[in-house]
Amino acid sequence: MKTLIITNRERFPEQEKRSSQLLKSLNKVGIEGEIYNICKDKPLHIQFFEIQKIKVPLIVSFDFAGFEFRTEQEEISLNLLYGRIAYILLNHWKIYENSLKERMNFSMFVYCQGEEEAKKVGQEFPNVPNVGFYEGKREKIQWNTLIEKILLDTELEMIR
Amino acid sequence: MKLLLLEWSAYTQKDVNEILGENHVQFKSVSYCFGDKNKDDFFLHRFGTYLSLDQYDAVFTVNYFPLVAIACQNKGIPYLSWSYDNPLNVPEIEKTLGLECNYVFLFDKIQVKQYRDKGFNNVYHLPLAVNTKRLKRISLSSSDWKKYKGDISFVGKLYPSAFLDLLNPLNDYMTGYLKALADAQFKVYGYYFLDELLTDPLMDELNSQYKQQLGEGKFQISKEQLSYAAASFLTRQERVLLLGILSKYYEVNLYSREEHPALSKVSYRGSAKYLEEMPKIFMASKINLNITLKILQTGIPLRALDILGAGGFLLSNYQEELAQYFIPEEEFSCYTSIEEGIEKAEYYLKNEEERKKIAQRGLEKASSEFSYEKRFQEMFRIAGI
After folding, report:
1. What is the pLDDT of residues A76-97, one digit of tens each?
2. Residue B57 and residue B194 in one domain
3. A56 and chain B: CB distance < 8 Å anywhere?
4. B261 exposed, middle or buried (CB, 10 Å; 0-12, 13-18, 19+)?
5. Fold that domain A2-159 belongs to in CATH
6. I need a labelling partner for B40 at 20 to 30 A (CA). Which of A57, A144, B188, B276 fits?
7. Do A82 and B31 touch (CB under 8 A)?
């Protein structure tokens, strides 16, 4: 199975380390991956087109990277992609308030820092289709557990 | 009444939601993007769960989704779908169309007739709608006027088509014949006869030539695919020709993702945002063109209603239902040839007062007869909910 990891390192520099850690952990369980970093140098619609061409069953986005791509109806372009998307939030949920209000496909799964945050997000944003959490912060994120959780939630564990 | 809405980035979704809310129809929205519209276990499982979580009187979608029909059939819940796409772009649609739960609403009378003639009695004719209340809330600032003003505007695709490429492997006779059919269809408005002339023996001969030229199992084409390729080719021709000629004499603004080498004199503006920008374009342009996809035989396309509902002046190719519901040259203007289109553009650019009155009357008709409220009332009445 292949995944695509989307980052925006300019907005959240921490993503560089975390995405590499995630990629290593994915590789260890036999899942290939590549990282696509959203940059300022290229028009957004070109970058979205490039991401669209990489057809994978699972995309992992850090901190809602990819929400920069917008449709003509001013919604997130990621809703136009078939496949599961897991959003890993590396910071407190308050930072993502605007993103959490966006219409999201029910093939999207949001993972917060810890159970308390997940509960709060679920309460404040009932329209977010799937809210989960991961254990650990920063260097202590338990990637293997999170990967297993994502595969189970997204019903992809059988095609791994 | 409580509905479950499956949303997907439809142009009309926000209007649907607004009107349902205003009319105190309770609904829950969930969203999804299909890869294979006919096979998706994840979708069936999850959507089925949503259906079980509450008591819904029906499910509603803009456009038709076979897997939604299956999910609804499994739960015994009515499924109302209202399509603004034509053709429907649903492979093997007839496998699920006849499901008992289905109430399928289409805006083209001929398309409805074709399905009903095949025994699908749960397919109904329902023209599209426009939310003039939302459009009235949009006003033009002076910078908007500057940005969007123009003699003539066109918002839409140029329809890239594979039709000419499809002719390449064919012999001269077949190529000539198909080109002649296309040329003839180009000149006719209000009747798409290509489908009747793409007979089974013709398609068999065509596919046999593909087999000979390209090899066994390499390429075959269905009648629907060829028909669509021809229709998009003809529509492209009409759009490029009309825009190209008009742009020689008038200021023409084109809002489209694609540029075309023959349109060197149009002012190319890129794509337009549907909810905010498009209405402003229609308000600020003296004339707004609608050039319908050829395969759409009688129905009023969404774009035409978008123009009328924004109070824009509509100059459209002849469509039977446009002329049936709106009075030609009183509530909109129509043409039945490229030459007539050019003449009418010239006339209405010169006659500002008359043009504005026509636009105003068109808006009044759209407001009173093409509201979402009216359409939903009709849908719910037919579905018995």
Report:
1. 999 999 999 999 999 999 999 9
2. no
3. no
4. exposed
5. Rossmann fold (3.40.50)
6. A144
7. no
